[in-house]
Amino acid sequence: MAVLKALFQRKLALLGLIVILAFVILALFAPWIAPYPFDEMHKDGLTDFGSPLPPSAKYWLGTDTLGRDLLSRLIFGAQATLIVAIIANTIAVAIGTLVGVTAGYLRGPGGSALMRFTDLMTAFPALLLAILLAAMFNPSLWIVVIVIAMVNWVQVARVTYTETISLSEREFITAERSLGAGAPRILFRHLLPHLVPTITVYATLGIATTSLTEATLSFLGIGVQPPTPSWGNMVNENQTYFEVAPWLVFFPSGCIALLALSFNLIGDALRDILDPTLRGRH
Amino acid sequence: MPGYVLRRLVQMLLTLIGVSVITFLITHALPADPARQIAGRTASAAQVEQVRHQFGLDLPLPQQYLRYATGLIEGDLGRSYVQRTDVSFLIASRLPATLLLMLGAIFCELLIGLTAGSVAAFRRNTAADQGVMIGALFFVSTPQFLVAYTLLYVFSNWLGWFPLSGYGTFSHLVLPSVALGLLGGGWYARMMRSSTIEVLRQDFVRTARAKGLSRTRIVLVHVLPNGLLPIIAMIGLDIGYFMSGIVVVESVFGWPGIGQLTWQAIQTIDIPIIMGVTLVAACAIVLGNLLADLVAPLIDPRIKLK
Fold first, then answer.
1. B141 contact residues in A (CB cutoff 8 A)
2. How near does any CA of chain A get to the CA of B211, in Å?
3. Is residue B13 within 8 angstroms of chain A, CB to CB?
């Protein structure tokens, strides 16, 4: 609660929170909020020459290359974008925490093998690895979720590993151990609760990263597949009309930037609030 | 020093072996038919069978890996069935364009990032500082294609200062470099700001001030060189981010480098090319890290090689 209160006092973080809340509401209530169905090709949705319409009173943000209402597609697109970003990130954080805590708690050959594998993953450019993985399968929403989770867990693993190592040398863990507590009790009652602040920060910043990865994969054509709209694949579908109808590229990619920026603003603020060692240094 | 270099080289070799194992497992051990993927989506059943046999995909996995690794050592990255050419040849022919863009991009990144970051640090807690930090966070949070298309729209379509796309002259290089420079510059600005603030609170800066040195001298001789140290390590690490960025930026600007090759390979699901580019990029990252580690102690004598 104290954290939330501190978050509300920071204007930029509050702004980020409002933006995210707005996107979530749009995604949840898309069928009721959107003026048209996302896949309806309007008869009057194209000019006589067959090009998309610019923003007007009827189509607030204009129409796309197939004569569909761009605003409605953006509102429905929030669904796929948020689902992928949030679920992929949750899986990535879970994998990262599991690997980091296990390696930090076990130490020894098992722990160091896990961390060598984690280091190995940092040798890959995340996007290229995601492209390679995504290209091996017929793309679908859930493949995209898994692919993004597979490449984005590394940072969480490294951070939780370092934290677990330093925590397990603290007196209260030693005390608990000498009282005869088993591994599950130490892990769940003592280590994980202390890791919650760090995990919260990286989970928030991570959603920005996963939503950008989704956008790029969809932009490249191997992310969320049409007819399901996502902000990334809307740019992909419309980019050939960029010179005639630049709004078709700018509105969806602006939404992605706004979403990622909001999560980064909150993540940065959370880091300042939750990590007292950084206080006053930034 | 020689012992350290040797140990790092062995470490690098192990990492590269690991990298090859992971790419191999992704392309051969996942529940997707590699023969079908390598032959391409349009291949006939007979072609797929031919590929399966030719690549030894009917052999047991360890044997397949040995074949693949032997090929890698000989510089054989496989063959693109879609383009009917060796992958290593395709990558080598695209490398000069990408290296040129990399030079331009790193120049822009450093120019934008270091200037913005140090200005923010010196004007800490002012409107200028906040503006720079919000700007930096914006570029960190922006999809690469938004920056690329905005630059294209403003400076080519609208103002007509630069060509729409292509390669060959200096003016072709400007927009893609600036696009990558803005995207990467956000990270550098954040790094540069915190590292400069860290230096500003050191005792030697206070001493310099107490000695009555001019502000310019303190900044140029005492603060900036020390603030730059952590950035140098970052240039080595930056290669990974750069390799991801070029796929989008090169495809938007029609820059004929490795990024565009990857983009074309994605459109035709040309797995051998994507795999080859991933391997080459991983090698570049490992090499970049090694160089950063080797150069760091030469610049900062406080860092000792262990």
1. 208, 212, 257, 260-261, 263-264
2. 26
3. no
Tell me which residue in A128, A133, A263 faces B244 most closely, judged by beta carbons. Answer: A128
Quote the strand ranges of B152-282, DSSP E: none
3 state SS of B300:
coil
Q: Tell whether B151 is covered by a domain.
A: yes
ipTM of the complex as predicted: 0.87
Domain boundaries, position B196: 96-299
List residues bridging with A46 in a β-sheet.
A52
Pair of tokens at residue A239: 């980019």
Arithmetic mean of pLDDT over chain B: 84
pLDDT in tens, B3-46: 888 888 888 888 888 988 988 888 877 766 767 767 766 777 78
Domain ranges of chain A: 71-274
Q: Is B266 on the interface with A (CB under 8 A)?
A: yes
Number of domains chain B is built from: 1
Note the pLDDT tens digit of each residue in B153-198. Answer: 888 878 878 787 777 777 788 899 999 999 989 989 988 998 888 8
Q: Which residue, among B177, B193, B171, has the nearest Cα to B126 in the 3D structure?
A: B193
CATH class assigned to A71-274: mainly alpha
Q: Specify if B16 maps to a domain.
A: no
Q: Do the chains contact at B137 and A137, CB–CB below 8 Å?
A: no
Taking the C-alpha atoms of residue A263 and residue A252, their distance in angstroms, rounded to an integer, is 17
Contact residues, chain A, for B150 at CB < 8 Å: 250
Average pLDDT over residues A216-242: 89
